[in-house]
Amino acid sequence: MLKKTLLAAAVFAFATTAVQANEVSGYVTGSIGQAKADKLKHAKEVQNDYNEIGNIPGVSSRTSTDRSDTAYKVAVGLKVNPYVALEVQYIDLGEASYKGSASDGVQFSSDKLKSETSGLGANVVGIYPIDDFTLFAKAGYHYLKTKGSYKYDESFTGFSPYSESESKTVRNWTPSFGVGASYNITQELAVVAEYERYKGVADKKVTIDGEKLSFKHDIDFASIGLRYNF
To answer: In this structure, what is the dihedral angle of CA atoms 16, 17, 22, 28, given to the nearest 10 degrees?
Structure first.
């Protein structure tokens, strides 16, 4: 916690110095796109188990994965000089889900895992203007909340079905980096396209159904949006 406090103080000191030394300008960006999460380690293990069960004579199994979802963000930036900006943002990286099921005609079982991630963060942005075009690269640090949920269903012919579910929320600081470009439609309005990667999301083990599980993964986010300069 002390390291994070010192880092925040250093960033604030840098911003204050830059503001005093330069004529600053600001901007607001709203972007939407698609996020894609790396497959969770535990999801791989569960789906591998179901694939192996499917090799047993008389048993059928299937697995499915949906790691892509619509995502969006809203950022407010402070351009301290023509080449450097500081920004804060809220980001919703959508959800990813994983399923596995098996049946032998008498017994049916299924496992479902899902993760949803969103949070707040800040970026330092390096800018390279080329007439109406601008290229940029950024590095950031985000406090992300990931809700991981697990559900198990089981049924036997002639018996009542059984179901259990549990969810846990993981919060952690996550580094990120990105690259992008913008084009000025007018002096105030620009279209922005960018790619970002969030590293080590949900990097904490949680106990679900008596077992310690890791929801750690990376998330890629490609987006397009509009920026208003003021």
So the answer is: -30
Report the pLDDT averaged over residues 183-187.
96
| pLDDT for 82 | 92
Give the C-alpha distances (Å, rounded to integers) separating 193 from 61, 105, 178.
41, 50, 11
Q: Which domains does the chain have, with CATH numbers?
A: 2-229 (2.40.160.20)
Task: Find out whether 27 and 63 touch, Cβ atoms under 8 Å.
Answer: no
Distance CA 72, CA 58 (A): 45
pLDDT of residue 22: 57
Contacts of 15 (CB under 8 A, 6+ apart): 78, 80, 86
Neighbours of 69 (CB within 10 A): 18
**pTM as predicted:** 0.85
CA angle 106, 43, 98 (to 5 degrees): 70
pLDDT higher than 80, residue 5 = no
pLDDT, tens digit, 9 for 90 and up, residues 166-182:
988 999 999 999 999 99
Angle at 119 between CA 118 and CA 125, to 5 degrees: 115
Listed in sequence order, the residues at least 6 apart from 83 whose beta carbon sits closer than 8 Å to its beta carbon are 126, 127, 128, 129
